[in-house]
Design a protein that fits this description.
By secondary structure, the chain is mostly helical. It is 69% helix and 0% strand. Helix 5 runs parallel beside helix 8. It starts with a helix and ends in a 10-residue tail after the last helix.
């Protein structure tokens, strides 16, 4: 076994990544679960409310919400997402030694599973999970478009910011796997446009009509009634976000911008460390057989990126946004590989010294964070 690690350090990187996952989890459970816990308390008790779907589902099973449920639910979703991604990678690329560097740069990236572990209890991972499911199931009928629409609307009800965070990636997956792969008639095109319009309308409803209408004291009192330990009022410190208008969120983001911009060089460094993966992605696009496919993939990447730029202007959780943007590109690569190619794409080298160093650095970085780097 030691000889195999010595001959192929990428195997050792995988083992180290598993240890890092465990370390991030142990560190996470030692931290106070502020926002993720309150999201399990909010439901539709006072009428239609933004960010309330998960809490409403939890309310169907229990009247009192223990704090440990944040970790139990978040951990279960993390395990399912990780398992499905492994299955997706195996189907797209396989697990031979030649593809190990690609797997390390994806699954071992601090942008991906490690950061989802650090943000355990937040709802970003649901978008990733639904996108992976759409990459795994067959795209053979209009049902695929309708299922993607259902997933998108569920994500908006979980948290309306998913309209910018993962819905564009889901739409890109549908276009690449369904519309480009088999063509589309008028009904399918109209259905796709209607799906986008319906999802957008739901977002507008959640953003502008989902604000809590009752006094904040009544809202907090109700949340306390759902807590197993109602004296821990510190866990409700973010109740104000159900009252905060969009203009206030944007103003807060821009007020924090000068300080948060200090982290951008670190984000740029983290992105640069994934250069072997980005190079492989770029080569996969240029290898596509049809020029129209290449243009559509580039347009999809542009739209996804623009969505994240809008998020940067609206909400200041920059480490989360950068991490999810990278994850969206990881998933989009799988959709690109399903399109016809005119030639084989050279894999990430297993012997290049610089690439190996990048792989080790990516492996050892435990996560990116929520607002500022690390």
């Amino acid at each position: 076994m030691n000889l195999r690690f010595r001959e192929n350090p990428w195997r050792l990187m995988l083992a180290v990544n598993v240890a890092v996952f465990v370390g991030v989890f142990l560190h996470k459970i030692a931290l106070p679960p502020y926002v993720p816990y309150i999201h399990l308390l909010v439901d539709y008790h006072f009428g239609f409310t933004k960010r309330a779907l998960i809490g409403a589902i939890v309310a169907l099973f229990t009247a009192k919400v223990p704090v440990w449920l944040v970790f139990a639910l978040g951990g279960a979703v993390w395990l399912i997402t990780a398992a499905l991604f492994v299955r997706l990678f195996k189907r797209t690329f396989g697990f031979d030694d030649a593809h190990l560097p690609l797997f390390v740069f994806m699954a071992g990236s601090p942008f991906f599973l490690k950061n989802f572990m650090h943000t355990l209890g937040h709802f970003d991972i649901y978008g990733c999970l639904f996108a992976i499911v759409l990459l795994l199931i067959p795209a053979r009928s209009l049902f695929y478009v309708l299922l993607a629409t259902l997933f998108s609307m569920i994500l908006v009800l979980i948290h309306h910011i998913h309209l910018l965070m993962y819905v564009p990636t889901i739409a890109a997956i549908v276009v690449l796997r369904y519309y480009l792969a088999r063509g589309a008639d008028r009904l399918e095109i109209v259905t796709g446009i209607a799906a986008l319009a319906a999802t957008g309308l739901l977002f507008v409803t959640a953003q502008f009509l989902g604000t809590m209408a009752v006094p904040e004291a009544d809202f907090v009192s109700y949340l306390q009634s759902r807590m197993t330990d109602p004296i821990r009022t510190n866990l409700l410190s973010f109740a104000y976000i159900w009252y905060q208008p969009l203009a206030k969120e944007v103003a807060d983001t821009w007020a924090r911008l000068p300080h948060n911009l200090l982290g951008f060089p670190i984000f740029a460094l983290l992105i640069w460390l994934h250069t072997p993966l980005w190079r492989y992605f770029s080569n996969s696009i240029t290898a596509l057989s049809a020029n129209v496919h290449r243009r559509i993939v580039i347009a999809a990447i542009t739209i996804i990126t623009l969505g994240y730029l809008v998020m940067f202007a609206m909400v200041f959780d920059y480490s989360r946004w950068i991490s999810n943007w990278a994850v969206c590109l990881f998933l989009l690569l799988h959709a690109v590989k399903a399109l016809p190619a005119s030639r084989e794409v050279a894999l990430i080298s297993t012997n290049d010294r610089k690439t190996t160093i990048f792989g080790w650095v990516v492996t050892l970085i435990p996560r990116v964070g929520i607002v500022r780097p690390f």
